[in-house]
Amino acid sequence: MATHDSSQALDPADYIAHHLQNFSTSSSASAAPDVARSSPAWSTVIAAMPAIVALAIYLLVSLPIAGYMVRSGLAAHGFAGSERFGFWRAVSLGLTTYLWSVPGSLAIADVGISLPGHAADALRAILVVVWGMYIVLPRQVKRVERFAAG
Questions:
Q1: Does 145 reside within a domain?
Q2: Cβ 105 vs Cβ 125: under 8 Å
Q3: 122 and 92, same structural domain?
Q4: What's the pLDDT at 116?
Q5: Entry pTM
Q6: Are residues 61 and 124 in the same domain?
């Protein structure tokens, strides 16, 4: 393998193809480097695989934790809930929480507010709280009530 100086950019497809050749043991596996070299989309997906795996692990860990935390918070405030609250129900409640709160928070963060000083940040914080109380929380309560009913 030739040495590259720092001014010469390496093509990600060549890098991936080189490392895929190390894993190819059969004739069908030898097509993998050609796919990585000929398709920039596959090359990008393969190069982004560590980030994709990290995101998947984060979601697998955080969704049930978010669900259990929401259920505990609702139970502490006297909302009815089912006695049985397993892993999949926690994932479902965590997914409901993420799917309603994250897009709203991102949209609110992008709102252009022209107020002096920290007033714009304070207004955004108030909007996030309002979004959580009047949009996200009712959906969480409905989900927990459906769990209790069925």
A1: yes
A2: no
A3: yes
A4: 80
A5: 0.62
A6: yes
Q: Are residues 42 and 82 in the same domain?
A: no
In angstroms, the CA 33 to CA 42 distance is 10
What's the total number of domains in the chain? 2
Question: DSSP string of 42-78?
Answer: HHHHHHTHHHHHHHHHHHHHHHHHHHHHHHHHHHHTT
SS (H, E, C) 93-121: HHHHHHHHHHHHHHHHHCCCCCCCCCHHH
4 vs 20 pLDDT, higher one: 20
- Find the domain containing 29 and state its range: 12-47
% of the chain exceeding 70 in pLDDT: 74
In this predicted model, what pLDDT tens digit does every residue of 69-80 receive, in sequence order? 998 888 888 887
Q: Mention every residue, 6+ apart, whose C-beta is less than 8 A from residue 20.
A: 32, 33, 36
What pLDDT band is residue 42 in, cutting at 50, 70 and 90? confident
- Read out DSSP for 7-37? TSPPPHHHHHHHHHHHH--STTTTHHHHHHH
Convert 100-112 to b/e letters by CB count within 10 Å (16 or more is b): bbeebbeebeeee
CA dist 73 and 66 (Å) reads 10
